[in-house]
Amino acid sequence: MGRFLLVALCGLVLMGCRQEPKPEVEAPVKKDTADCTKTATKAFKMYELSEMASLMERMYAENSQLKQRIVNGDTLGKFPEYMLKIHSAKLTDESDNDAFFKENAANFIKAQRTIYEDPKTAKQHFNDMVTACITCHEGKCGGPIQRIKKLYIK
Ligand code: HEC
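Above: the input record for the complex with heme C. Below: its predicted structure, written as tokens.
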């Protein structure tokens, strides 16, 4: 019995060791669960947003407003040209700018444009645009998905 206890204790201690906090500088960090921009930069102890992350925040804010205009039946205005920066803005991790990203960026821009080009069907087009945001995020960084989903017009 004493022996068993000792073994069990050893096991506990060993398991305990494995749960020790990981060293700060460990990289690369997995991106699928956490907010990718923040985890990716953690190793370097800098929390400023990349050019791309700032653009994303601006697109989020823009589309929250656009959602309100659609819901209220207001005029929608024009496609915000600054969104084209999605093709060139600097990412936290430049290796994210791969074929998948480029294809999804193009799909997203097309979806965003369609909203203004066919305002009669704005709600449907708006929701398709939100899906285009999410499709890219599913492949790139899952962190903001729950937040993006809130944009959907029900
Ligand atoms: C083509 C792929 C793609 C599309 C489309 C896309 N995103 Fe992103 N998004 C990313 C990537 C990659 C990042 C991380 C940026 C970085 O690491 O610099 C990101 C980051 C974000 C962030 C986190 C920024 C921060 O504060 O760290 C938010 C919020 C976000 N996106 C919202 C959106 C919304 C809303 C849309 C649609 C209007 C959208 N995204 C469309 C790929 C995409």
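Notes for the reader.
The mean pLDDT is 82.
The pocket of heme C is lined by residues 35-37, 49-50, 52-53, 56-57, 59-60, 63, 91-93, 96, 101, 104-105, 108, 132-133, 136-137, 140-141, 144, 147-148 (CB under 6 Å).
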